[in-house]
């Protein structure tokens, strides 16, 4: 594990390798503290200017793995490209409900060509968004269902986007999400009861930085109460920046604030929470 991390660091930080390694060894007595950002959009233009520095900051801050998420064909290709460039980055492929309007047989076929790439570890984000309705609801549903079948075909877990469509997403997953790998409801915005219904179906729940907001009592209750085995943590960077960085662009390092808040809510040691949630990510996505 240590060797691997040093390899990653060496690869990414040729100039800062020495100090990075010393920093990590001194702080953790040889035990790597692992925190994973289970959902970021590193391909987005917000990171075009300083992606290397963003990744450097994440590694230095103990965020040892990042999953970067595809939202359409071009974004999935770019996510995979990043994952192939950096050992500690993994990618997903899929059509986000916002982009469902652009998906057709040929773009889905192109996505399917990436389904067996070693660094592609999940299908998503896919789902329904009846809040913004950037794509017509019927098309969203059809593309969501088709991609659930594709994920099943490739035996990949799914990453679910659900905004103002809890009941519909739940019903579709009950019918079509019955693959062995299940997946995660990302950026969970429902209540505890809904979270438990998804968990009973075998899904994980991922909590974003909104849990640090003052008025976020519902998501705070979810983060504090669901079984630890089902809990994932994410940034959804560049969106949903946690306090105290709220207002700025989000980045993987800031998952630390979210994890600290959840540890506090659960009255748990931060490092134990980081370890347990990272184990969940590694198990769910079968990371090496
Ligand atoms: Ni996202």
Which descriptors apply to this entry?
single chain, 288 residues, alpha/beta, TIM Barrel, eight-stranded parallel β-sheet, 8 strands, 15% strand, disordered N terminus, binds nickel (II) ion
Sequence-ordered SSE layout with sheet pairings:
Layout: H1 2-12, H2 17-28, E1 35-40, H3 51-60, E2 63-68, H4 73-85, E3 89-93, H5 105-112, E4 120-129, H6 137-154, E5 158-163, H7 166-176, E6 183-185, H8 192-200, E7 204-207, H9 217-225, E8 231-233, H10 255-265, H11 270-284
Parallel strand pairs: 1-2, 2-3, 3-4, 4-5, 5-6, 6-7, 7-8
Bound molecules: nickel (II) ion.
Residues 39, 41, 69, 125, 236 line the site of nickel (II) ion.
Order of helices and strands: HHEHEHEHEHEHEHEHEHH
Structural class: alpha/beta
Which residue ranges are poorly predicted, with pLDDT under 50 across at least 5 consecutive positions? 1-32
If you consult CATH, what is the topology? TIM Barrel
User: Which homologous superfamily in CATH is the superfamily?
Assistant: Metal-dependent hydrolases
**How many β-strand runs?**
8
Ligand species: nickel (II) ion
Could you describe the 3D structure shown?
The chain has 288 residues and is an alpha/beta fold. 44% of the residues lie in helices and 15% in strands. An eight-stranded parallel β-sheet has the order 1-2-3-4-5-6-7-8. Strand 6 (183-185), helix 8 and strand 7 (204-207) form a beta-alpha-beta unit. The model is unreliable at 1-32 (pLDDT under 50). The structure holds nickel (II) ion. Nickel (II) ion binds at residues 39, 41, 69, 125, 236.
């Amino acid at each position: 594990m240590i060797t691997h991390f040093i390899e990653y660091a060496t690869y990414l930080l040729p100039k800062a390798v020495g100090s990075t390694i010393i920093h990590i060894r001194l702080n953790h007595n040889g035990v790597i503290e692992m925190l994973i950002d289970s959902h970021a959009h590193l391909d987005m233009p917000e990171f075009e200017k300083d992606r290397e520095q963003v990744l450097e900051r994440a590694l230095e801050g103990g965020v040892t793995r990042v999953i970067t998420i595809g939202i359409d064909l071009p974004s999935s290709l770019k996510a995979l490209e990043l994952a192939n460039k950096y050992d500690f980055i993994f990618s997903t492929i899929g059509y986000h409900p916002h982009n469902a309007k652009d998906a057709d047989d040929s773009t889905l076929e192109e996505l399917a060509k990436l389904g067996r790439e070693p660094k592609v570890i999940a299908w998503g984000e896919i789902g329904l968004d009846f809040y913004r309705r950037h794509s017509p609801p019927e098309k969203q549903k059809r593309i969501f269902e088709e991609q659930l079948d594709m994920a099943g075909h490739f035996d990949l877990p799914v990453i679910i986007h659900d905004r103002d469509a809890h009941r519909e997403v739940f019903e579709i997953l009950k019918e079509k999400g019955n693959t062995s790998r299940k997946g995660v409801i990302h950026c969970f915005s429902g209540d505890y009861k809904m979270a438990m219904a998804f968990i009973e179906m075998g899904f994980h729940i991922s909590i974003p930085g909104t849990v640090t907001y003052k008025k976020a009592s519902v998501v705070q209750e979810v983060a504090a109460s669901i079984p630890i085995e089902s809990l994932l943590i994410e940034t959804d960077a560049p969106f949903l920046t946690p306090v105290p960085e709220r207002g700025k662009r989000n980045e993987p390092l800031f998952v630390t604030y979210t994890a600290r808040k959840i540890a506090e809510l659960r009255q748990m040691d931060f490092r134990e929470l980081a370890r347990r949630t990272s184990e969940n990510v590694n198990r769910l996505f079968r990371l090496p």
